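User: structure tokens for this one?
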Amino acid sequence: MTDSSSPKIVFPLETLTVLGSTGTITFDEALQFDKELLQNARSVTSQYGNGSAGHVHLVVTPAEYALRSAQVYAPVAFPVLDIPAGATGAQIAEANRAFNADLTAFNKNNLVATALIAQVVKAIPSIYLQSLEDPATGMEEVTILQLCQHIKDEYGTATPQQIEANYAMASDPFNLSDSVETYTGKMERIRCLAAATNDPMLDAASIRFAVAAMAATGQFKADLHARAIEQQIPGQAAETWPAFVSWLKRVDKARRQEKTVADAGFLAQANFASAVAAAVREQIAATHRAPANPPPPPNNNHGNNNNQGNNNNGNNAPRVKKYCHSHGYCGHTSMQCNRRSPGHQEAATSANKMGGNETNFVYRNQRSRAQGE
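Assistant:
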């Protein structure tokens, strides 16, 4: 029990969603219950276990806690004041300070547990908790962890049909009229449900589902993701789902800005080579800007053209807008080039030529006229 001076525990969710309103506790309700309880438990700081996990240790088993926090939690007993014989005044003061700190943490832990139990009892009709009651003490000695495990064991187990339906939803198409966050949010829910059924959807599988959904729209090339992956730094770890989501958002943003599939397909992840990202920025900017030094207007007096021998600066020079590693300043980017020289660098831009051609490319018809052919 706590005295009137005990601090009040405040959770982000004042009440939990009521369960069993349809005559039984459904699987989806059990998942929502677990999610809400974790949110409240995590919100209150604790010096036990991993401090960043709050009081999650109260609502999950030690094994689950170790997976969530990468740190083992051992239940803490009531603290004991330990003053060794012959201790000095300073040592006694330190022992008292440590005891008081441990007692404060212990009492706070109990307060949080009591507050969570009160929320659970309000959210779950007593008919679903009968098996936990003791004939003599009722629910007095039931812990919050026992309540959580009871709901998981009795109602939080998915049927084979539910598991199959969940994976089937992962094959739904990517709706181009929705935001990419709508799609990735749905995939997150599918992944959470799969994890809750002890059949987790691995990152690689989630990415395959998403890539297939993108290709099915007809707005993204089938090899778009594979080509982006080729830009990864050699030896880099396998792609994660969060990294893929970040890449997908950039790709979809480029599509919505009406960029070409080739441009969008090479938008790199944050951990890709920085030169690739620079190349994408160059491609996007090139479609909106005029040449820095526009060529003079064409000279139609071919008989008196004194600049016929000048391949780069003559009146017949092509309009230069973009940079290509193989051809220099021309009408396409390094990534768009379809006639590449050996050692061609797709990431090369006008700002970072990466050792590429530094001249203005002269098209064949211009060379012919310049040579009097």
